[in-house]
Automatic annotation (TrEMBL):
SUPFAM superfamilies: Purine and uridine phosphorylases (SSF53167). This is Probable S-methyl-5'-thioinosine phosphorylase. InterPro entries: MTAP, Nucleoside_phosphorylase_d, Nucleoside_phosphorylase_sf, Purine_phosphorylase-2_CS. NCBIfam families: MTAP, PRK09136.1. Keywords: Glycosyltransferase, Purine salvage, Transferase. The record marks 168, 222 as: Important for substrate specificity. GO terms for molecular function: S-methyl-5-thioadenosine phosphorylase activity. Pfam families: PNP_UDP_1. HAMAP family: MTAP (MF_01963). The lineage of its organism: Bacteria, Pseudomonadati, Pseudomonadota, Gammaproteobacteria, Pseudomonadales. GO terms for cellular component: cytosol.
Length: 246
Protein backbone atom coordinates (compact mmCIF):
# COMPACT_ATOMS: atom_id res chain seq x y z
CA UNK A 1 0.00 0.00 0.00
CA UNK A 2 1.32 3.43 -0.95
CA UNK A 3 2.43 5.66 1.90
CA UNK A 4 0.90 9.04 1.19
CA UNK A 5 2.17 12.31 2.57
CA UNK A 6 -0.09 15.32 2.73
CA UNK A 7 1.45 18.78 2.67
CA UNK A 8 -1.09 21.08 4.28
CA UNK A 9 -1.12 24.73 3.28
CA UNK A 10 -2.90 27.80 4.59
CA UNK A 11 -6.02 26.67 6.46
CA UNK A 12 -4.69 23.16 6.87
CA UNK A 13 -1.84 23.47 9.34
CA UNK A 14 -3.21 20.50 11.24
CA UNK A 15 -5.18 17.56 9.97
CA UNK A 16 -8.21 17.37 12.24
CA UNK A 17 -9.08 13.71 12.70
CA UNK A 18 -5.49 12.52 12.31
CA UNK A 19 -4.76 9.85 14.91
CA UNK A 20 -1.20 10.76 15.68
CA UNK A 21 1.24 7.92 16.34
CA UNK A 22 4.43 9.97 16.24
CA UNK A 23 5.73 13.46 15.43
CA UNK A 24 9.22 13.12 14.02
CA UNK A 25 11.72 16.00 13.96
CA UNK A 26 14.15 15.92 11.05
CA UNK A 27 17.41 17.69 10.35
CA UNK A 28 18.19 17.43 6.65
CA UNK A 29 21.24 18.43 4.57
CA UNK A 30 19.09 21.43 3.57
CA UNK A 31 18.16 22.47 7.10
CA UNK A 32 15.03 21.97 9.15
CA UNK A 33 11.58 21.39 7.66
CA UNK A 34 8.69 23.71 8.51
CA UNK A 35 7.45 21.44 11.30
CA UNK A 36 7.83 17.89 12.61
CA UNK A 37 6.51 15.24 10.23
CA UNK A 38 3.37 13.75 11.74
CA UNK A 39 2.91 10.05 11.28
CA UNK A 40 -0.48 8.60 11.98
CA UNK A 41 -3.75 7.27 10.68
CA UNK A 42 -6.40 9.22 8.85
CA UNK A 43 -9.72 7.63 7.99
CA UNK A 44 -8.13 4.40 9.26
CA UNK A 45 -5.21 4.57 6.78
CA UNK A 46 -1.56 5.30 7.49
CA UNK A 47 -0.46 8.75 6.42
CA UNK A 48 2.27 11.34 6.87
CA UNK A 49 1.40 15.01 7.33
CA UNK A 50 3.51 18.15 7.15
CA UNK A 51 2.35 21.73 7.73
CA UNK A 52 3.99 23.72 4.92
CA UNK A 53 3.94 27.01 6.83
CA UNK A 54 4.65 25.46 10.23
CA UNK A 55 2.17 24.86 12.99
CA UNK A 56 1.01 27.40 13.97
CA UNK A 57 1.20 29.13 10.56
CA UNK A 58 4.27 31.38 10.71
CA UNK A 59 6.49 30.84 7.63
CA UNK A 60 5.59 32.97 4.57
CA UNK A 61 5.59 31.27 1.13
CA UNK A 62 8.94 32.70 0.00
CA UNK A 63 10.66 31.54 3.18
CA UNK A 64 9.38 27.98 3.34
CA UNK A 65 12.32 25.57 3.22
CA UNK A 66 10.83 23.45 0.43
CA UNK A 67 13.97 21.36 0.07
CA UNK A 68 14.01 20.39 3.74
CA UNK A 69 10.28 19.63 3.65
CA UNK A 70 10.51 17.29 0.68
CA UNK A 71 13.70 15.67 1.93
CA UNK A 72 12.15 15.00 5.35
CA UNK A 73 9.02 13.46 3.82
CA UNK A 74 11.12 11.17 1.63
CA UNK A 75 13.18 10.12 4.65
CA UNK A 76 10.00 9.53 6.62
CA UNK A 77 8.98 7.02 3.96
CA UNK A 78 6.60 9.01 1.75
CA UNK A 79 5.90 7.33 -1.59
CA UNK A 80 3.48 9.92 -2.99
CA UNK A 81 2.58 13.49 -2.11
CA UNK A 82 -0.76 15.25 -2.13
CA UNK A 83 -0.25 19.00 -1.76
CA UNK A 84 -3.10 21.20 -0.57
CA UNK A 85 -2.90 24.79 -1.78
CA UNK A 86 -5.12 27.83 -1.28
CA UNK A 87 -5.30 29.85 -4.50
CA UNK A 88 -6.87 32.85 -6.15
CA UNK A 89 -9.24 32.25 -9.05
CA UNK A 90 -8.34 33.71 -12.45
CA UNK A 91 -10.59 31.78 -14.86
CA UNK A 92 -14.30 32.52 -14.54
CA UNK A 93 -14.97 28.88 -13.58
CA UNK A 94 -12.70 29.25 -10.53
CA UNK A 95 -15.06 30.95 -8.08
CA UNK A 96 -14.43 31.07 -4.34
CA UNK A 97 -14.89 27.67 -2.71
CA UNK A 98 -14.20 25.82 -5.96
CA UNK A 99 -11.79 22.87 -6.00
CA UNK A 100 -9.30 22.33 -8.82
CA UNK A 101 -6.77 19.59 -9.57
CA UNK A 102 -4.34 21.41 -11.87
CA UNK A 103 -2.63 19.59 -14.73
CA UNK A 104 0.00 22.26 -15.49
CA UNK A 105 1.91 25.06 -13.86
CA UNK A 106 3.88 28.16 -14.74
CA UNK A 107 6.61 29.21 -12.32
CA UNK A 108 7.04 32.94 -11.58
CA UNK A 109 8.89 32.48 -8.30
CA UNK A 110 12.50 33.54 -7.85
CA UNK A 111 15.30 33.24 -5.33
CA UNK A 112 13.97 30.11 -3.65
CA UNK A 113 16.06 27.02 -3.00
CA UNK A 114 14.61 25.20 -5.96
CA UNK A 115 16.83 22.19 -6.67
CA UNK A 116 18.72 19.43 -4.90
CA UNK A 117 21.24 19.44 -7.73
CA UNK A 118 23.71 21.96 -6.40
CA UNK A 119 26.51 22.12 -3.88
CA UNK A 120 30.05 20.84 -3.55
CA UNK A 121 29.18 17.12 -3.41
CA UNK A 122 27.39 17.16 -6.73
CA UNK A 123 28.76 14.46 -9.02
CA UNK A 124 26.80 15.36 -12.13
CA UNK A 125 23.99 17.71 -13.03
CA UNK A 126 20.65 16.07 -13.70
CA UNK A 127 17.90 17.74 -15.71
CA UNK A 128 14.59 16.24 -14.68
CA UNK A 129 11.83 15.97 -17.25
CA UNK A 130 9.11 18.32 -16.05
CA UNK A 131 6.89 18.52 -19.15
CA UNK A 132 3.98 17.25 -17.07
CA UNK A 133 4.66 18.47 -13.53
CA UNK A 134 1.87 16.58 -11.80
CA UNK A 135 1.71 12.80 -11.58
CA UNK A 136 -1.23 11.73 -13.74
CA UNK A 137 -2.23 8.54 -11.83
CA UNK A 138 -2.22 10.53 -8.58
CA UNK A 139 -4.26 13.30 -10.20
CA UNK A 140 -6.76 10.67 -11.30
CA UNK A 141 -7.01 9.34 -7.75
CA UNK A 142 -7.89 12.84 -6.55
CA UNK A 143 -10.41 13.25 -9.34
CA UNK A 144 -11.96 9.85 -8.60
CA UNK A 145 -12.40 10.90 -4.96
CA UNK A 146 -13.99 14.21 -6.00
CA UNK A 147 -16.40 12.42 -8.33
CA UNK A 148 -17.42 9.82 -5.74
CA UNK A 149 -18.07 12.61 -3.24
CA UNK A 150 -19.98 14.52 -5.94
CA UNK A 151 -18.11 17.70 -5.19
CA UNK A 152 -18.03 20.35 -7.93
CA UNK A 153 -14.49 20.69 -9.24
CA UNK A 154 -12.29 21.36 -12.26
CA UNK A 155 -10.37 18.35 -13.52
CA UNK A 156 -7.63 20.48 -15.04
CA UNK A 157 -6.19 23.95 -14.76
CA UNK A 158 -2.92 25.83 -15.03
CA UNK A 159 -1.44 26.91 -11.71
CA UNK A 160 0.59 30.13 -11.65
CA UNK A 161 3.17 30.09 -8.85
CA UNK A 162 3.94 33.66 -7.75
CA UNK A 163 6.50 34.90 -5.28
CA UNK A 164 4.34 36.63 -2.69
CA UNK A 165 3.81 37.30 0.07
CA UNK A 166 1.85 40.17 -1.42
CA UNK A 167 -1.07 39.42 -3.68
CA UNK A 168 -0.72 40.31 -7.35
CA UNK A 169 -1.58 43.55 -9.12
CA UNK A 170 -4.55 43.51 -11.49
CA UNK A 171 -2.02 44.03 -14.30
CA UNK A 172 -0.06 40.96 -13.27
CA UNK A 173 -3.23 38.88 -13.28
CA UNK A 174 -4.00 40.07 -16.84
CA UNK A 175 -0.53 38.85 -17.79
CA UNK A 176 -1.00 35.48 -16.06
CA UNK A 177 -4.32 35.07 -17.82
CA UNK A 178 -2.64 35.80 -21.15
CA UNK A 179 -0.08 33.16 -20.23
CA UNK A 180 -2.92 30.64 -19.92
CA UNK A 181 -3.08 30.44 -16.12
CA UNK A 182 -6.36 29.60 -14.38
CA UNK A 183 -5.44 29.79 -10.70
CA UNK A 184 -2.70 31.58 -8.77
CA UNK A 185 -0.89 30.63 -5.59
CA UNK A 186 2.45 31.18 -3.89
CA UNK A 187 3.55 27.70 -2.82
CA UNK A 188 3.17 25.36 -5.79
CA UNK A 189 6.82 25.86 -6.76
CA UNK A 190 9.51 24.78 -6.22
CA UNK A 191 7.65 22.08 -4.27
CA UNK A 192 6.43 20.19 -7.34
CA UNK A 193 9.85 20.19 -9.02
CA UNK A 194 11.64 19.07 -5.86
CA UNK A 195 9.24 16.15 -5.51
CA UNK A 196 10.08 15.18 -9.10
CA UNK A 197 13.81 15.43 -8.38
CA UNK A 198 13.29 12.94 -5.54
CA UNK A 199 11.19 10.67 -7.73
CA UNK A 200 8.05 11.23 -5.66
CA UNK A 201 4.70 11.31 -7.49
CA UNK A 202 3.08 14.66 -6.67
CA UNK A 203 -0.34 16.18 -7.27
CA UNK A 204 -2.12 19.29 -6.03
CA UNK A 205 -5.59 19.83 -4.62
CA UNK A 206 -6.27 23.56 -4.88
CA UNK A 207 -9.04 25.40 -3.06
CA UNK A 208 -9.99 28.77 -4.53
CA UNK A 209 -10.25 31.23 -1.65
CA UNK A 210 -10.61 34.58 -3.46
CA UNK A 211 -11.06 36.06 -6.91
CA UNK A 212 -7.63 37.03 -8.26
CA UNK A 213 -6.68 40.71 -8.24
CA UNK A 214 -8.78 42.83 -10.57
CA UNK A 215 -11.45 40.16 -11.02
CA UNK A 216 -13.65 42.11 -8.61
CA UNK A 217 -13.71 45.87 -8.10
CA UNK A 218 -12.88 45.76 -4.42
CA UNK A 219 -10.06 45.01 -2.07
CA UNK A 220 -9.23 41.37 -1.34
CA UNK A 221 -9.13 40.97 2.42
CA UNK A 222 -7.64 38.31 4.67
CA UNK A 223 -11.01 38.12 6.42
CA UNK A 224 -12.65 37.10 3.13
CA UNK A 225 -9.93 34.51 2.44
CA UNK A 226 -10.18 33.07 5.94
CA UNK A 227 -13.98 32.80 5.73
CA UNK A 228 -13.77 30.79 2.48
CA UNK A 229 -11.01 28.62 3.93
CA UNK A 230 -13.06 27.89 7.03
CA UNK A 231 -16.00 26.65 4.99
CA UNK A 232 -14.02 24.95 2.19
CA UNK A 233 -11.42 23.05 4.15
CA UNK A 234 -13.96 20.48 5.26
CA UNK A 235 -14.41 19.38 1.65
CA UNK A 236 -10.64 19.16 1.29
CA UNK A 237 -10.52 16.83 4.30
CA UNK A 238 -13.27 14.68 2.80
CA UNK A 239 -11.32 14.36 -0.43
CA UNK A 240 -8.13 13.42 1.41
CA UNK A 241 -9.92 10.75 3.43
CA UNK A 242 -11.48 9.37 0.24
CA UNK A 243 -8.14 9.26 -1.56
CA UNK A 244 -6.53 7.35 1.29
CA UNK A 245 -9.43 4.90 1.48
CA UNK A 246 -9.25 4.20 -2.27
N1 LIG B 1 -2.73 35.11 -5.28
C1 LIG B 1 -1.66 34.37 -4.90
N2 LIG B 1 -1.74 33.45 -3.95
C2 LIG B 1 -2.91 33.24 -3.34
C3 LIG B 1 -4.06 33.99 -3.69
C4 LIG B 1 -3.95 34.97 -4.72
O1 LIG B 1 -4.91 35.67 -5.08
N3 LIG B 1 -5.06 33.55 -2.89
C5 LIG B 1 -4.54 32.56 -2.12
N4 LIG B 1 -3.24 32.39 -2.37
Amino acid sequence: MTTYAIIGGTGLTALAGLELDQAQTFETPWGAPSAPVQRGHYAGRPVLFLARHGHPHRIPPHQVNYRANLWALKEAGAEAIVAVNAVGGIHAAMGSGHLCVPHQLVDYTWGRGHTFFEGADLEHVTHIDFSFPYDEPLRQRLLGALRRLQLPHSDHGVYAATQGPRLETAGEIVRLERDGCDIVGMTGMPEAALARELGLPYACLALVVNPAAGKVQREITMAEIEAVLASGIDEVRQVLAEVLAD
